[in-house]
Amino acid sequence: MNKGKLIVFSAPSGSGKTTIVRHLLEKEELDLEFSISCTTRQARGEEKHGKDYYFISWEEFKKHIKAEDFVEWEEVYTDNFYGTLKAEVERIWAKGKHVIFDIDVAGGLRIKRKFPEETLAVFVKPPSVDELKRRLKERSTESDDKINMRIAKAHVELATAPQFDTIIKNYDLDTAKKEAYELVRNFVSK
Fold it and tell me: Which residue in 183, 168, 163, 164 sits closest to 124, CA to CA?
């Protein structure tokens, strides 16, 4: 099978990585397809099974772990497991496309370690932790306790930024989108 490239976007929740990834997916010339992660958490808002995530039970997730079906997986928040199935990456590569990920920092770094030559790992840095909190509250999809848990985790995630290939500072969304486009375009054309 002809391997494509792997483009990882990671950041604390609220940094804008999902918005940037969606923008890149609209650019047909990049030949990207979104890697749908598995998760044991419940769907939020308008999320759809098979589009945003594969929402599966903890029992099913454990079976995949035991069978070594994941490229990467972890317990991102207490009792909320996330993982990328090998079959998902193979499905996208079989279509002749490059895989783009919107995943947590630990998962992103695991993919980079497993596929160092094929992976571009991008960290999206927010203007500040206060801005992250404002954005998360604005979403209105989670309780204050969940938001505070995400903010606490953001401090740890921000410390991993230097381990990524590049950092995009999302202080202005249009500028961040343009920078992301150029990075990905250059990487997939190599």
Answer: 168
- Indicate whether this model's pTM tops 0.90: no
Supply the pLDDT for residue 49: 95
Tally of CB atoms within 10 A around 2: 6
Cβ of 165: how many Cβ atoms within 10 Å?
Answer: 14
Check: CB of residue 164 under 8 Å from CB of residue 157. no
DSSP string, 93-145: HHTT-EEEEE--HHHHHHHHHHSTTTEEEEEEE-S-HHHHHHHHHHHT-S-HH
Predicted confidence at residue 150, as pLDDT, reads 81
Picking from 108-117, 118-127, 133-142, which range would have the lowest pLDDT averaged per residue? 133-142
